[in-house]
Write a sequence for this structure.
């Protein structure tokens, strides 16, 4: 197995900040308990010690970049009066751990070329953006363009080739170093300015005419990159500016798909039946509670897909993208089928067309055997996880109304999944 590339740049910062978090935790444990409400005034010696271990890292440029990743606290330009209490220190430790987790679980993977290559080989996505940009030179000619989460800079290059006067490609990870080389190789000098940093914090000479971004995650909202896009839109897009894509729709459906967790009783002469119970327990406790990416066909869909949320990227707010609140669904079964789960996906709309790719599958513990005329109706809900703002919990509650039976007495089913 090839050795995993060693972290560099921001990757090294993770190690430093991890040590800092551990140190601060020890400081909190060893300090005398004080009132969270009143706090305490520190003497000169205490003030000096706490200023060095708490205030300084908080105000460093690199620390400020991490603080911009998660909603809430903002970078502090100047140290204020030192009046520390346990709640303040513990909040700092908590936020530090959150930034480290966010980098490890999200940003770090985008810094590797193999991950970027996988996205570049996604023909559906690439074709959608290429067509939307290159087929509409009138929307880009002599315009200023901002590419949020630029990655390797491909969207920036297309925008430049479509006639943009200036393109700003913003990428948080060290992939920005590769983007600079790629953009310089494919466009005239000065056509694209690659900027490494948080899109929420960058400064531009003026507002831009167009924002392009490939922000969509699984089932649209996972990864929560739309939060960043909204903040950037409000700060840097002209009032009459364009967004690529401009709207998005989330869809939900009942589906039938092959199960992928069948047990193996023997292998090459070795009987594995002794582990049957443990295997089944594992499927129930973990595998069947996780959503996963699938590529479904129209034949896999049971009933007509329901629209559960629609977003206008020009007006959507941070509150709007926190999840899906109790969306009702109703599916009419047309023929006898074993429904194995639900599926969620999205469709994005560009100013000139529509595209979608892939589905997120939410399996049932046991398939539902349905007949023509049956009706499955209920409510689905999607909320951000308590562990990280980039993942979600999806739940559904539903009833099956059998054709010809009294609709007042069907049992109610419910299921919950992690979308990590």
């Amino acid at each position: 197995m090839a050795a995993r590339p060693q972290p560099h740049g921001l990757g090294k910062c993770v190690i430093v900040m991890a040590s800092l978090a551990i140190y601060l935790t020890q400081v909190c444990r060893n300090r005398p308990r004080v009132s969270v409400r009143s706090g305490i005034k520190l003497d000169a010696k205490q003030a000096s010690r706490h200023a060095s271990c708490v205030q300084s890292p908080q105000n460093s440029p690199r620390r400020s970049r991490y603080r911009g990743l998660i909603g809430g606290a903002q970078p502090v330009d100047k140290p204020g009066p030192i009046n520390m209490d346990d709640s303040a220190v513990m909040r700092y430790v908590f936020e530090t751990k959150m930034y480290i987790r966010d980098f490890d679980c999200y940003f770090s993977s985008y810094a590797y070329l193999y991950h970027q290559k996988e996205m570049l080989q996604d023909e559906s996505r690439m074709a959608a953006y290429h067509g939307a940009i290159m087929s509409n030179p009138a929307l880009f000619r002599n315009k200023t363009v901002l590419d949020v989460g630029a990655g390797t800079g491909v969207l920036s290059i297309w925008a430049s080739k479509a006639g943009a006067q200036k393109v700003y490609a913003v990428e948080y990870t060290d992939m920005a170093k590769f983007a600079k080389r790629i953009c310089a190789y494919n466009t005239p000098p000065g056509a694209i300015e690659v900027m490494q940093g948080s899109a929420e914090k960058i400064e531009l000479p003026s507002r831009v005419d167009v924002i392009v971004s490939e922000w969509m995650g699984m089932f649209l909202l996972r990864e929560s990159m739309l939060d960043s896009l909204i903040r950037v839109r409000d700060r840097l897009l002209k009032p009459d500016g364009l967004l690529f894509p401009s709207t998005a729709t989330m869809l939900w459906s009942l589906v039938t798909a092959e199960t992928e967790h069948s047990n193996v009783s023997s292998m090459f002469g070795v009987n594995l039946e002794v582990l049957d119970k443990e295997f089944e327990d594992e499927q129930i406790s973990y595998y069947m509670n996780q959503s996963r990416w699938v590529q479904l066909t129209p034949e896999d869909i049971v009933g007509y897909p329901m629209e559960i949320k629609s977003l206008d990227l020009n007006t959507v707010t941070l509150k709007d993208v926190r999840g899906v609140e109790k969306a009702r669904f109703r599916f009419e079964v047309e023929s006898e089928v074993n429904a194995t789960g639900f599926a969620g996906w999205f469709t994005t709309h560009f100013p000139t067309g529509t595209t979608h790719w892939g589905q997120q599958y939410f399996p049932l513990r046991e398939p539902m055997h349905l007949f023509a005329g049956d009706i499955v109706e209920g409510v689905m809900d999607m909320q951000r996880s308590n562990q990280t703002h980039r993942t979600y919990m999806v739940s559904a509650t539903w009833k099956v109304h059998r054709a010809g039976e009294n609709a007042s007495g069907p049992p109610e089913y419910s299921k919950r999944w992690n979308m990590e």
